[in-house]
Amino acid sequence: MKNYDHRKIEKKWQGTWEKSKIYEAKTGGKGKPFYGLIEFPYPSGAGLHVGHIRSNTAMDIITRKRRMEGYNVLYPIGWDAFGLPTENYAIKMGIDPAKVTKTNTDIFRKQLKSVGFGFDWSREIDTTDPAYVKWTQWIFLQMYKKGLAYKARTTINWCQSCKIGLANEEVVGGVCERCGGQVVKREKEQWMLAITKYADRLDKDLDKVNYLDKIKIQQRNWIGKSEGSEIEFPVKNSSDKIKVFTTRADTIFGATYVVLAPDHELVTKLKSQISNWSDVEKYVKEVKDKPDIERTAEDKVKTGVELKGVKAVNPANGEEVPIWIADYVLATYGTGAIMAVPQHDERDREFATKFNLPIIDKPLVDAKEITDKVHGKIVTKYKLRDWVFSRQRYWGEPIPIIHCDKCGYVPVPERDLPVVLPKVKSYTPTDNGESPLAIISKWVNTTCPKCKGKAKRETDTMPNWAGSSWYFLRYVDPKNKKEFASKKALTYWMKNGVDWYNGGMEHTTLHLLYSRFWHKFLYDLKVVPTTEPYMKRTSHGMILASGGVKMSKSIGNTIDPKEELILYVYMKCL
Amino acid sequence: MFIGPFDQAVSWNTDSIIGSRRFLDKIWRLGERIGSSRPCLGPIGGKASSRQLESASLQTLLHKTIKKIGEDIESMSFNTAISSMMILVNEMEKEEFVNEKDFKMFLQILAPFAPHITEEIWSTLGEKKSIHKSSWPKWDKKKIVDDTVKIAVQVNGKVRSEIMVSSDADEEAVKNLAIQDKNIIPWIEGKPIRRVIYVKGRIVNIVV
User: Fold this and answer.
1) Which residue in A245, A367, A263 sits closest to A316, CA to CA?
2) Residue A567's pLDDT is what?
3) What domains are there in chain A, each with its CATH number?
4) What architecture is domain B148-207?
5) What is the DSSP string of A116-160?
6) Is the CATH code 2.40.330.10 the one for domain B16-144?
7) Which of left, alpha, beta for A387 (phi over 0: left; psi -120 to 50: alpha)?
8) Which of A198, A313, A546, B63 has its CA 20 to 30 A from that of A574?
């Protein structure tokens, strides 16, 4: 009896399937459409990872069942190919990142094909392909035209080793999540996207979609919507007032102190009245470089300093209360100041216990009534901040804006898209925080599309998140040269959004939120048919190394894909 | 996919692949057994022998498995889907005769998990179209309501009859069946029934 010769048989059928195109999806084809989506991989130099296999296999099984149930199935694949690892590798080796990307995607394609996934390879996309970049830039320009993309001076987390700005969530334990390098705060002019304008809809519309509860909770926590009151606590012997934001105005009679964020503007304003200024100054300095996520972590030991010599007055009962600064209050959230009610708030209680502040139990009152009585107002606040959209790196989509001394910011005309990256043999990021594009004068110097005068290109590039914020739309019509996708293809495949999206829990906060935001924006432009991009979102667990620890290259316990691929190939049902 | 619940983190274990490999080898051998016996109506396998019948319990298990795999895929419970297919394959191995039609249904529900091997066996069994373009099998409701059990019916502690009920039939239904059984009626006719006791899956005692 012959044994199952998996290599021979797999090769044979993969060839047959490719020839007969059984996995190719036809827009408008036979059967009801079904769109199954996985997170497209970042083609790193290491090749496929077991995690990819797990996620792809799950959707592979689902889409194969749908196909057998008579659905017209779309199960596409592509490459989320801009990003730091490729760029860093290219710098190290002194080669063009585009070349590195080509090599890596070739490996990924070969590996994925050898596993025998039922992807529609005819729709393969690559976010770094100029034909794709064109539409990423086009969407950015529409946002610019609607006032959603703007430039602002803001504090960013700066990794001194990668020489790149990091999002808050990319900073772990005060160091860069990727390289472990020291992170400092830096002020920089940055392009921003006004995602906060969509905060309410991003929160509310979660009711319309079928996501796992834990995913909805993550989205909602990140958006951080809260209804509350803004109430002013006058500073004694001063005309200054501390505006606090509280969701518990009903507990105002139990407020025993007020806390300002260390970088609240009042702190320096009150300097002359503060008797322990040197302690205050020292503390402010200490927390300056701490990332927000750490400052507000629940398990963190509370720290703070009292502003001695000044008092605030509780407007509800006229009582004087001390004013503190503490890093668990953020200047950027609410009003940057809180009234502390240790009787009713866990964090305040912890703080009060540590610093021996009074904890008093007073009856609750009606929140609305008391807010009116103390001349406060009811407001809705969000934790969500606008999205820092600039990166000072080479390997990303150039932001398609031109700076003209006469005309200011001028968008690159749509007919001139895409703005492609200049070819480089090799380059390095700059120490002064400017994009490496800034020193390629041939590329930077251009003419203003408006006045035809001398002008310069914007040298910041888009973050890694840009290309993945709309890739599911391109799959439905990947070769379209006139639009990012035709209306016909969009209404056919995305009548209700992507039918089922599966991916890792590590992408259920930002990628999910960002792509929902872009999609909603496109919906407002009336160029996509639905308010939400994904009808259903599920997630898979991580594959850990034996012993239950996270696989990591630094520990050296990852599985060599070359060796293991052979096993996956016949053992998809692992 | 067999490695553990899909929504949870799992530890990688290269050895666990061996179990899966054995599973595929078993299917391969079953496929060969059924394929090779097709023309000659051999004692094992074959589709045309009317004298031999696949056991009813295998059919029940098959249809239950079809139902379960369909549901498990929808809920992403891939690991339980695979274990139930493993159970089915073990049962098929033990059977003297496996209907080709039924084996093909099994191949179809396995196809999303193991696309290559199922396609190969499917084609050696004479199918021209890809298994991945075939229609997802429908489970037969009648075959699933299966395991009937024999229940002894007593009247005042003495066995007077036997009835067949489905193993998951509820208590009231079984009691009613017992009271209406034609062998029982003469024993209880005209007498007030005081109590009916049902020991699940075994006995009904009618006290008159």
Assistant:
1) A367
2) 46
3) 6-128+468-570 (3.40.50.620), 155-189 (no CATH), 226-381 (3.90.740.10)
4) Roll (3.10)
5) T---EEEEEEETTSHHHHHHHHHHHHHHHHTT-EEEEEEEEEEET
6) no
7) beta
8) B63
Shortest alpha-carbon distance between residue B35 and chain A (Å): 13
Residues A70, A322: Cα–Cα separation, whole Å: 70
For the segment A482-489, the average pLDDT, to the nearest whole number, is 97
Name the least confident of A70-84, A135-149, B144-158: B144-158
- The A residues from 199 to 228 touching B (CB cutoff 8 Å) are 212
Mean pLDDT over each residue of chain A, to the nearest integer: 89
**Tokens 């316990």, residue?**
A557
Distance in angstroms (rounded) separating the CA atoms of residues B123 and B112: 16
Q: Can you tell me the mean pLDDT for B67-77?
A: 94
pLDDT of residue A72: 98
Mean pLDDT throughout A137-156? Answer: 94
> CB of A43 within 8 A of CB of A101?
yes
Query: Do the Cβ atoms of A535 and A497 come closer than 8 Å?
Result: yes
How many Å apart are CA A453 and CA A259, to the nearest integer? 52
**Cβ neighbours for A181, distance < 8 A, ≥ 6 positions apart:** A159, A160, A161, A162, A175
Q: How far apart are CA B37 and CA B52, in angstroms?
A: 13
Question: What average pLDDT does this structure show over B64-78?
Answer: 94
| Measured CA angle at B199 (ends B157, B186), to 5 deg | 40
The Cα A348–Cα A360 span in angstroms is 12
Give the pair of three-digit tokens for residue A379.
């407001």
CA dist., res. A242 & res. A257, Å (int): 12
Q: Which structure tokens are listed for A574?
A: 């692992």
- Tens digit of pLDDT for each residue in A161-192? 877 777 666 777 778 877 888 888 888 889 99
**pLDDT at residue A564 above 70?**
no
DSSP A242-260: EEEEES-GGGGGG--EEEE
**What pTM was estimated for this model as a whole?**
0.82
Specify the pLDDT at position B37. 66
Kindly indicate whether the ipTM for this predicted assembly is greater than 0.90, answering yes or no.
no
Higher pLDDT among residues B2 and A365, named by residue = A365
pLDDT tens digits, one per residue of A246-255: 999 999 999 9
Are A37 and A534 spatial neighbours (Cβ–Cβ below 8 Å)? yes
How close is the nearest chain B Cα to the Cα of A526, in Å?
33
Q: CA-CA distances (angstroms) from residue A566 to A408, A543, A561, B55, B206?
A: 57, 18, 8, 38, 65
Over its C-alpha atoms, chain B yields an Rg (Å, rounded) of 23
Check: CB of residue A13 under 8 Å from CB of residue B116: yes
CB–CB of A502/A37 below 8 Å? yes
Contact partners, residue B128, CB within 8 Å, separation at least 6: none
Interface contact flag, A571 B132, Cβ < 8 Å:
no
First to last CA, chain A: 25
E strand segments, chain B: 10-11, 148-155, 158-166, 195-199, 203-207
Residue B20 has pLDDT above 70, yes or no: yes
Is the confidence at residue A558, as pLDDT, over 70? no
Average pLDDT, chain B: 83
Collect all residues with Cβ–Cβ distance below 8 Å to A145 and sequence separation of at least 6: A411
- Pick B1's closest partner by Cβ from A13, A212, A573: A573
Q: A55-69, A84-98, A163-177, A445-459: which has the minimum mean pLDDT?
A: A163-177
Residues 536-565 of A with CB under 8 A from B: 538-548, 551, 559, 564
Residue range B59-75: average pLDDT? 94
Structure tokens, B136? 């997802």
A571 vs B20: CB contact, 8 Å cut-off?
Answer: yes
> Is B24–A4 a contact, with Cβ atoms under 8 angstroms apart?
yes
Cross-strand pairs, A244: A231
